[in-house]
Specification:
Elements lengths: L8 E9 L4 H15 L5 E10 L4 E8 L2 H8 L2 H11 L2 E10 L7 E9 L4 H15 L5 E7 L8 E8 L2 H8 L2 H8 L5 E10 L7 H5 L6 H27 L4 H32 L6 H22 L3
Helix pairs in contact: 1-3, 4-6, 8-9, 8-10, 9-10
Length: 308
């Protein structure tokens, strides 16, 4: 019998792309994102580009433990995705590592509305801005979620740096201002949110009891409460902010989001999920699995509710 260690696990794919396959690779990223979301124990997916000039990428698939990562790696879906990826790459390397030490960092959540007819130009613009931000100190990676192909317009970007200072250095840089000016004809609306690990004081009550939830659980809870807030703002708030200056409308959206996350959403979520966030040691294995499946089920319910 194989005994697995209950630690967050990262499944790495390090690749070097062939020339002129950016569009095909973007489509592959979307296929991976859809497929992996339903895998048991899935926590997050990141696409990192540490060497843009050499077309080198690192794809980080985060799972609750090594068993769940191994199960995903053995699926037919994963093998088919790897076969498609090999057609786009010159070299590929796979590895699996323990993620328990990968805490900290700050993430900027950027929601952008782009008209479908401008998508090609918008993709080119995104590639340009991601090349620039990857050169700044502290850059850790970027994840881009494209809209629903049939009727979506909203792009969601998770931009991660190691510290708030390094993130602000990029956000306030002359390079970013210059490339943002080029996007004025492409972007109809932009909203940003900031998430700082370990999520400010949201888990302070639990921490005072002597146990802080692992970062993957904190991430899952934050996503659980952030997603409906963003969706409701896009549906009900954005139409009333269209005529305002983008700076003012973004401030209003951020103020409401931060306020609602801090109270009442996070306290309610923590109260309801405390049995899973900090279980007794002897019950941890079964509790971790049950809670993760419950949260994934709630994700699916939220996505279904906001689908149309």
């Amino acid at each position: 019998m194989v005994h697995y260690i209950e630690k967050p696990t990262l499944l790495h794919l390090k690749i070097r792309l062939k020339a002129n396959v950016d569009a095909e690779f973007a489509d592959w990223q979307a296929q991976l994102n859809v497929a992996i979301a339903g895998s048991p124990g899935f926590v997050s997916l990141e696409f990192l580009c540490p060497l843009p000039s050499m077309h080198k990428w690192e794809i980080v698939q985060r799972f609750g433990n090594i068993q769940e990562a191994s199960q995903w790696k053995e699926t037919q879906t994963y093998h088919e995705l790897i076969e498609r990826l090999e057609l786009l790459t010159l070299e590929k390397k796979e590895s699996m590592t323990d993620a328990s030490s990968l805490n900290g960092g700050v993430t900027e959540v950027i929601v952008v509305e782009c008209s479908p007819e401008k998508e090609t130009a918008f993709r080119s613009w995104m590639a340009k801005i991601h090349l620039l931000e990857a050169k700044f100190p502290g850059f850790r990676g970027v994840y881009v979620q494209s809209p629903n192909p049939s009727h979506g317009k909203f792009w969601i970007t998770l931009l991660q740096f190691d510290t708030t200072e390094h993130l602000d250095l990029w956000l306030h840089s002359a390079e970013r201002r210059s490339v943002l000016d080029e996007s004025k004809s492409l972007i109809n609306y932009m909203e940003t949110h900031r998430v700082i690990s370990p999520y400010a004081g949201w888990f302070a009550t639990i921490a005072r009891m002597g146990s802080l939830p692992p970062i993957w659980k904190q991430t899952m809870v934050v996503l659980l409460v952030l997603f409906p807030i963003v969706m409701l703002e896009l549906k009900y708030l954005m139409p009333y902010l269209q005529g305002l200056n983008v700076s003012l409308s973004t401030f209003i959206g951020n103020a409401l989001s931060v306020s609602l996350i801090s109270f009442p959403m996070m306290p309610i979520a923590i109260l309801g999920l405390q049995w899973w966030l900090t279980p007794e040691l002897e019950q941890r294995k079964g509790t971790d699995l049950a809670g993760a499946l419950l949260v994934i089920g709630l994700y699916a319910l939220e996505v279904w509710f906001f689908w149309s």
